[in-house]
Amino acid sequence: MPEFANLLAFALISLGMVLTPGPNMVYLISRSICQGRTAGMISLGGVVLGFVFYMLCAALGITAIVMAVPYAYDALRIGGGLYLLYLAWQAVKPGGRSPFEVKNLAQDSPKKLFLMGFLTNLLNPKIAVMYLSLLPQFIDPTQGSILSQSLALGFTQIVISISVNTVITILAGSIAVFLSSRPTWFKVQRWLMGTVLAGLAVRMLTESKR
Predict the structure, then answer these.
(1) Cβ contacts of residue 50 below 8 Å, gap of 6+?
(2) CB within 8 Å of 160: residues ≥ 6 apart
(3) Which residues contact 181 (CB under 8 A, 6 or more apart)?
(4) Which DSSP string do the residues of the chain spell out, in sequence order?
(5) Are 152 and 78 in contact (CB under 8 A)?
(6) With the C-alpha atoms ordered 50, 42, 152, 168, is the resulting torsion angle positive or negative?
(7) Pairwise CA distance, residues 195 & 210, whole Å
(8) How far apart are the C-alpha atoms of 164 and 64, rounded to whole Å?
(9) Neighbours of 208 (CB within 10 A)
(10) Per-domain residue ranges of the chain
(11) pLDDT tens-digit profile of 1-26?
């Protein structure tokens, strides 16, 4: 198992990223508002399958890379830190668009809803980079199996994502109405997430070598 400090830090990054608007959030909110909460939850099921796919691929790949390349951690650490800075800028840059500005979507069958949720997550660059560049940061080879640590961190991210996205999907309509009448709240959310992600990026970039 990973150290508690590493697990907690990765959980905070996962929370910050799931709260930062991206393809998954936009799709789930739009689907929930346009076709109802049930459609949103079915779509979320597909998104979760995408997380599991990435987690398994990353866990197996990370294990091989760490065993073969001595400086792999540093390369992944720098790449992950720079990507967090990019996400922080995306959150606070002028003209940012709220994910609660609904996109009109056609009524689709449960099978297509699930598939679209899966593909949306599978093609989401934020999730791909998180698993390939960020997750390895929190693995310590001295703490036991790299594979088991990767899976533990991956499941932590999935649980956090399911929890947050379930709440967002269920309350999408109410949140959209709330934010449409209080645009300042959206600005606060953007700057809060940007600050958190930038702080985590600095921590990763200034961390000493393992």
Answers:
(1) 117, 118, 119, 120, 121, 122, 124, 127
(2) 11, 14, 15, 18
(3) none
(4) ---HHHHHHHHHHHHHHHTS--HHHHHHHHHHHHH-HHHHHHHHHHHHHHHHHHHHHHHHHHHHHHHH-TTHHHHHHHHHHHHHHHHHHHHHSTT---TTSPPP-----HHHHHHHHHHHHHT-HHHHHIIIIIGGGG--GGGS-HHHHHHHHHHHHHHHHHHHHHHHHHHHHHHHHHHHH-HHHHHHHHHHHHHHHHHHHHHHHHPPP-
(5) no
(6) positive
(7) 26
(8) 32
(9) 4
(10) 4-206
(11) 778 888 888 898 888 888 877 778 87
Tell me the two tokens of residue 75: 């390369």
pLDDT in tens, 23-52: 788 788 888 888 888 998 999 999 999 999
Residue for token pair 């668009």: 97
Please state, in angstroms and rounded to a whole number, the distance separating the CA atoms of residues 129 and 109. 31
* pLDDT tens digit sequence for 137-173: 788 878 888 888 889 999 999 999 999 999 988 888 7
Q: Which residue has tokens 């990435």?
A: 54
Q: What are phi and psi of 107, to 5 degrees?
A: -75, 120
Cα–Cα nearest to 171, from 40, 51, 43: 40
Higher per-residue confidence, 55 vs 81: 55
Kindly state the tokens that stand for 108: 């689709």
